[in-house]
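User: I'll paste a sequence; please echo it back and then give the predicted structure.

Assistant: Echoing your sequence first, then the prediction.
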Amino acid sequence: MILLKKLLHRTFGSRFFTIIDGIPALSVIMMLSTFCRIFIRRSVLALSQRLIECVPNFSEGRDQDTVQALSDAVRSVAGVRLADVSADPDHHRTVLTFLGETDAVAEAAFRSARVAVERIDLRQHQGVHPRIGAVDVMPFIPLRGVTMSECAELARQVGYRIARELEVPVYFYEQSALPGKPADLPTLRRGGFERWVGQELTGNRVPDAGPPYLHPTAGAVIIGARGPLIAFNINLNTDRAEIAEQIARTIRRERSQIPQLEGVRALGLFLPSRGIAQVSLNLTRPDRSPLWWVLEYVRSLAVQMGADVQETELIGMLPASAVANVAAHYLLNPALDEKRILELWMDAEWSP
C-alpha cells in the first residue's frame, strides 16, 4: 500500500489524496489494486519490438506444486516475462499471463501445456468454472509490431504441435478458427469434459487437430488469437448463488440492448471456500465496457435483490486505458487518461 501511495502521488500529486477521501472505499481499492498490474505490464514492453501476450487457463487451482511447475515452464524460456499468476481454489483454475517475442512465447506456451497434460487429471477435477481441458483455453494477443493474422497463425502452429506431440485434440477459436467451424469459446466448451470423454467426436465436435476423441485425463485444448479481454469478478456479500445467477442472466439478456454490456460474458457462481456468491465476467470489448460502469450496474442489480458488492477481483492484466478510465470517473476528472500516467512515458516505445 505504501508503494501504491508513492506511485499515485508521483502520478497525480498530493491533491489526489484529498479528493480520494470522498470516493467509496470499494472503488478506491479496485483502482489501487489495478495500478500495480498496469506498471508491471508497461515495464515489460521494453523487451521487444514485436511483442505478444499469452494467457493460458489451466484446470488446476489448488495444488501449489503444479501451479509452480506451470510457472517454471514459462520462466524456463529466455525472452519471456511471466507477469501474473492468478490461482483460485473454487474455480480450480490458474491463469498465467506472459509476454515476449513471438517464437519465445510460443515455446513457453507449449512447455506449459506439456506440464499441464502430464500433471492434471480431469477425472479428479471439480471446480465451479466450466472446462473441457487441462489446458482449457490458450489465447494469444498481439501487443506491438504483430498483426492479428500473424498471431492467429502462431496460435495454430502451437495448436498443431500440441496435437502432434502431446496427442491432445485441439480446437481453434476466435481469430484462429477454421472456415465453417465454431469460433466462440462457450460453444466449443459446451458440455465440458464429462459430456464428451470416451466418445468419438463427430460433426461440429470433430477437433481441428489431433485425435477424434478427448485425451482420457487432459481433455481438449481450445487455442486461438483474440484482442484484449478483462477478466473481472464481482463478489457479493451473500451466500445466495441465485442472486449471482440472476444477475448473470440479466447481463446475457441485456447485452444486445445496452452498449456498455456488448461482449460481456457472465456466470453466476457460488464460492464454497469463502461462502459467497460471485458474478464472474469476461469483458471482451473493454473499449465499450468501462469497469466502473459494469461494477455499478452489477451493484444496482444486487441491491434490488437485497445484496451488495463485497469486493472485486482482477484475473490477469488489463490495458492502462481501462484503469485510467476508472480513475477519471471516480476522481470526477473526464480529461484524465493513460497519457497522464508517468510510468508509461518511461517506455521509449510507448505512444498514446
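DSSP finds twelve helices and eleven strands in the chain. The longest strand covers residues 135-144.
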